[in-house]
Amino acid sequence: ESEVKNEKFGCLDEFTMLCHYAMKNVNEKLVRKVYKNYKAEEKHRNDIIKKLQFDSVDLISSESPIVTSSSSLNSVQTEINVADGFASTRWVSKPKKTGVPEWIEYLFKREIEITLVWISWEAAFSSNFSIEIFDSKAQEWKVIVKEQSGELLWSKIKIEPPVKTNQVRLVMLPSSKDGNPDLFSLHEWTLFGN
Description:
Elements: H1 2-9, H2 16-24, H3 28-52, E1 58-59, E2 66-68, E3 91-92, E4 102-121, E5 129-135, E6 140-147, E7 154-172, E8 185-193
Antiparallel strand pairs: 1-8, 2-4, 3-8, 4-7, 4-8, 5-6, 5-7
Helix pairs in contact: 2-3
């Protein structure tokens, strides 16, 4: 019966758990609500992509695995959420340690060119972050963007000139101006380029 209802209401992988919960409790209203929310998030995501994209630029972050310095012990708040395209999901760090940065890194199998970065923070934003690329020739990380301006719940950052690399990371340093004194959290960190 679960499989039939899953097909009937169009529930997709991202909401399988909620769908099964709703079906188990014979709550078709909740299943419909879950699907409606999924479609709304999908439309919101597509609208953002349309606004952000420009000629000869593609979404490239989906090509790469993601690694982090830490993730919440909650299994639904992991690093995979920063590239899933849903404004309703998020990554959450473990509790902050004074002076110790948190980071999220993309590891590409090929050299990519980054032209645009989109960051959508949850309320626990970082007010002191940088975007770094790994220079394979110099064997060191280089800062390409530095932000220390306080509250920014979302950032659209054009990278000029574009940079080439196969490793890029977002580094968050604890600050008294952060949105939450205990942890970092963000919905999306998306890379565009070629």
